[in-house]
Amino acid sequence: MTVIDILLSHDPVIERLTKIHLLNEKVPFIETSYIKRYLDLYNPISRTWEGVYSPKWISTHYTMLELMYMEIDPKHPVYQEALATLLDKEWKEQGQYHTLRHQDMCVVGMLLGLASYGKSKDSKLHEMIDYILAHIMPDGGWNCDWERKPAPRISSVHTTLSVLEGLHHYQKAGYSYKINEVKISMLTAIQTLLKRHLYQAHETKEPIHEAMVKPSYPPRWKYDILRALEFFVEIGYPDDLRMTDAINLVIAQMKGPFMPKGSAIPGKLHFKLEEGRYGMFNTLRALKVLKHFRRPLYEKLIKLEV
């Protein structure tokens, strides 16, 4: 068997994503396997899973992030109903979450992505766009601590990537409100990540944090190089020498065509997605990256008998 055979024989969600992202096939939405297990845990009375943003990772916010990554039908009534709950509970007027501070920018980026994926027509999306554009850091990225005193001088990679992903979903969904400013801000923020070679601290050139070079799935709100590289694949970004070290770090962790699933990020789980050392989600993600940026190696790996 090849790695493609194994991915295709795995959970139907993995099978579908493999067909779409590695085999370039058009596949209808599904409501089975992992997606069904999440949907079965939904509470139609509260219109939530467990809470809104917490407890991590079984809250409505983080459950929907997983469903979005698994590419649930964005028109699914449960997704749409839960999205309305998030927009009502997580976004207040002008982002003023309570009297002392505004909403966490990282959360806003994720919420914008969820709402854009669901093609929401709620005017709150315009407010979120205004909020994001109004609080760009001097280096072009974003920082969830933008209003801390003293104010931070540089962006956070965690926040910057969350906002970039949200803006990408916004652009992909065809929204027009301030779209030119959105595109410009994305280009600037992308350069901010590339200047750090996707993982390096400004001063030392060492990894900002060890966890950032050892990807896990699901990544939750946390930044890592595979999540960043997958974003660059999603937007069709061309190869860049400043990605080379990050790509090589991913390749170095692979055993043949397989990628470790990574350490679990502490928190509550609805259920375990995968057992064993190697993860099919991370393997799929790594192969997506290699298909885009290292095509000869990708072609070699998918032909290996394993």
Features:
306 residues; mainly alpha
How does this model look, in words?
Among the domains are: 60 residues, no CATH class; 103 residues. It is 48% helix and 0% strand. It has 13 helices and no strands. The N and C termini lie close together (6 Å).
- Taking pLDDT < 50 over at least 5 consecutive residues as the criterion, the unreliable ranges are none
SS strand fraction: under 5%
Count of helix runs? 13
Described by the principal axes of the CA atoms, the overall outline is globular
Query: What percent of residues adopt helix (DSSP H or I)?
Result: 40-55%
Q: Structural class, judged by helices and strands?
A: mainly alpha
The main β sheet shows up as: none
List the SSEs and their pairings.
Elements: H1 3-8, H2 12-21, H3 33-40, H4 60-69, H5 77-90, H6 105-117, H7 124-134, H8 157-172, H9 179-195, H10 225-234, H11 244-253, H12 280-293, H13 295-303
Q: What's a concise summary of this model?
A:
This protein has helices spanning 3-8, 12-21, 33-40, 60-69, 77-90, 105-117, 124-134, 157-172, 179-195, 225-234, 244-253, 280-293, 295-303.
